[in-house]
Amino acid sequence: MSAGVCDLTLDPKSFRTIADLAYRESGLTLVEEKASMIQSRLRPRLRMLGLRDFAQYSAFVGSDAGTDERKQLISALTTNVTHFFRENHHFKTLEKVIDARLPELRAGKRMRIWSAGCSNGQEAYSAAMTLLERCPKAAEYDLRILATDIDPQVVSFARRGSYAARLMDGVSETLRKTYFDRGTGGQEPMFTAKPELKNLIHFNELNLLAPWPMRGSFDVIFCRNVVIYFDLATQTGLWPRFLKALRPDGHLFLGHSERIAAPESLGFCTDGPTSYRPLTS
Ligand SMILES: C[S@@+](CC[C@H](N)C(=O)[O-])C[C@H]1O[C@@H](n2cnc3c(N)ncnc32)[C@H](O)[C@@H]1O
């Protein structure tokens, strides 16, 4: 290659290095059929870093100096598609859970919800709106939502809680008026979650494959449209951890195309589509 000429084609050896790294770091399973998508998502990183080809990039991202770049890599490779009240039947179940927990909440007991793989936050804000609709005094109770994601960029977006009008589909006019402040963005109106909504949610970075620092158990865990990017071994490793993190009468919600294979053998029973509960003996 002559000096100054770049070749931004993802070669098979670099693909393997990057795929192995992504798997080790985050559980993402990258298949060769997706090589051109991976190439186009990572090209801006090579340009940003002034690297000439993927061989240089894969060497850098795997090196000791590449710690920060590994986060950028995962961020570029993860799929962050989400929207408010996605797979709404889970929020209908959440309404019932809240109603059932109200006496405990009034008696000072805690209720915890976890949006695991929260992306840009719409899942957590949808849960917060559901809580406030059923329980307007939520702030007075020991009632909180934890929202986590491996990708620091989506976590800071979610924490800001500002959504362009086109991202607000699924939030009714009444809910918009009640829980969001309307402002102006560049081209279109922006809706920013009001403090009463934001204050219910704690956003944090968390890799689901790393140890979970949370203490106490969750009433409801949303882990939807996350494990679909993991292989069976990684998924199977997660189920017992979710079981341990749930209250004995808790709920685990998965995405529409995700399933726990043989749930009973792992201590779960099925409780509606993509909804699981710990088996009670
Ligand atoms: C498609 S979004 C799903 C968002 C939301 N749960 C929903 O269903 O609309 C998948 C999210 O999982 C996150 N993710 C992928 N691997 C992860 C891991 N190992 N630990 C935590 N989050 C992860 C991605 O960063 C992404 O934001």
UniProtKB/TrEMBL annotation:
Catalytically driven reaction(s): L-glutamyl-[protein] + S-adenosyl-L-methionine = [protein]-L-glutamate 5-O-methyl ester + S-adenosyl-L-homocysteine
Keyword Coiled coil: no
GO molecular function: protein-glutamate O-methyltransferase activity
Keyword S-adenosyl-L-methionine: yes
Highest taxon listed in the record's lineage: Bacteria
SMART domains reported in the protein's UniProt record: MeTrc
Residue ranges of every copy of the CheR-type methyltransferase domain listed in the record: 3-281
EC number of the protein: 2.1.1.80
Binding site for S-adenosyl-L-methionine: 80, 82, 86, 123, 149, 207-208, 224-225
Keyword terms, alphabetized: Methyltransferase, S-adenosyl-L-methionine, Transferase
One biological process term in Gene Ontology: methylation
Function per UniProt: Methylation of the membrane-bound methyl-accepting chemotaxis proteins (MCP) to form gamma-glutamyl methyl ester residues in MCP.
PANTHER family linked: CHEMOTAXIS PROTEIN METHYLTRANSFERASE
Name recorded for this polypeptide: Chemotaxis protein methyltransferase
Gene source species: Sulfitobacter delicatus
